[in-house]
Amino acid sequence: MKKVVMRECPDYTPDIVKAKLKESLDALGGLEKWIKPGERVFLKVNLLTGKEPKEAVTTHPQLVKALTELLMEIGALVTLGDSPAGPFLQGRMKKIYQLTGMTAVAKETGASLNWNLEPDSVYFSEGYRLKDFYVMKAINETDHIINVSKMKTHSMTMMTGAVKNMFGIMPGLKKAELYFRFTDPVEFGHAMVDICEYASPILSIMDGIEAMEGAGPSAGDVVKNGLILVSEDPYSLDIVASEHMGITPDSVPTLKAARQRNLCQSLEKVKLDTSAGEGTPKSFKLPDTREPDFLEKYGRWPVVGSIFKQISRKHLRPKPVVNPKKCTKCKECYTICPAEAIDMMEKVPGFRYDKCIRCYCCQEVCPEKAIWIFRPKILKWFGGTK
């Protein structure tokens, strides 16, 4: 039975965060259980894009600092890093490290920031959908990986959690290629599981002190959630987190894929270490990107069903829309779009919906929250989700 430790932590007050994190880790056996003095530890934090900590887009620096201090106290050599959405370039990383507070963490603790931006081609024989792929070279030059994720909703995968966080070991725009290659959410989930299995983090920690709901992973609303979650198993951690957020685990592609591969247990088979009253489930506002299941149901009808499916998928599917008043024409969406479905018009980006694969990467990287997801009201009449 896999164990998940959940502890209440009301805010990012340094002493409280460190004490609660240490208490959580000690409940699993303490850091010394996995790490010896002198070993190199890579903290794979969530640095999706250059946002300040108060926006709850990235792993909060105070949690990262507390973990770094605890690791260094037992003699570990700590490196902080991630490959954010978009190009993996030194100038861009410098800005992201600065905005997310990682530069300050490194300065205050003596930890290193990862500047090794080289890709490393790997072969993973156990991969279910991915066997040949690229990862950050730094990942293969460390002794241990600790997965430090952020509790957020996600427009494509319903939630960002420990498993999805490991996607960031794939460098730069290589990630966008996977969105185009695996347009079916569950197939994409299998690819995420393959990457997580390759990385094999020794620990997964989730920053749920302040979380995100709605149009995650970057354009949603901040939720004062007050939780830290820790586990040796990223799948069990995500199950507990999804249930807490009010998300059915099987609606999360990574968890559905993991369950199909017997890597994922039900909540009843997870040993949850929590005090009475801690982690009371909440109903997070979910992304408005769910597709109606009637598209598949009626699409099976001979002839008429085929026509209906074509029309409905063209006119009834949720789609990204740009707000011209917020758009600064930075071209972030244009650069990252894996389907090349965006044209830079004279005023704002233009979407070619016949090519759009609904990965919502454009919304994910937009620094101004200028892209929102339009979902036709008629879908609410039919109900149901895919």
The averaged pLDDT comes out at 90
* End-to-end gap: 31 Å
The appropriate CATH architecture of the largest domain is 3-Layer(aba) Sandwich
Give a count of the beta strands, DSSP E runs of length 2 or more.
15
In which range does the helix fraction lie?
Answer: 25-40%
Could you tell me the radius of gyration in angstroms?
A: 20 Å
- The CATH superfamily of the largest domain bears the name LarA, N-terminal domain
What is the SS-derived class? alpha/beta
CATH class label of the largest domain: Alpha Beta
Instruction: Please give the domain count.
Output: 2
Count of helical stretches: 14
Sketch the major β-sheet: 9 strands, mixed
Low-confidence stretches at least 5 residues in length (pLDDT < 50)?
none
Order of helices and strands: EHEHEHHEEEEEHHHEEHHEHHEHEEHEH
- The fraction of residues assigned to DSSP E strands is 15-25%
Global geometry: globular
Summarize this structure as a short list of keywords or feature phrases:
Rossmann fold, Alpha-Beta Plaits, alpha/beta, iron-sulfur, 386 residues, metal-binding, 14 helices, 2 domains
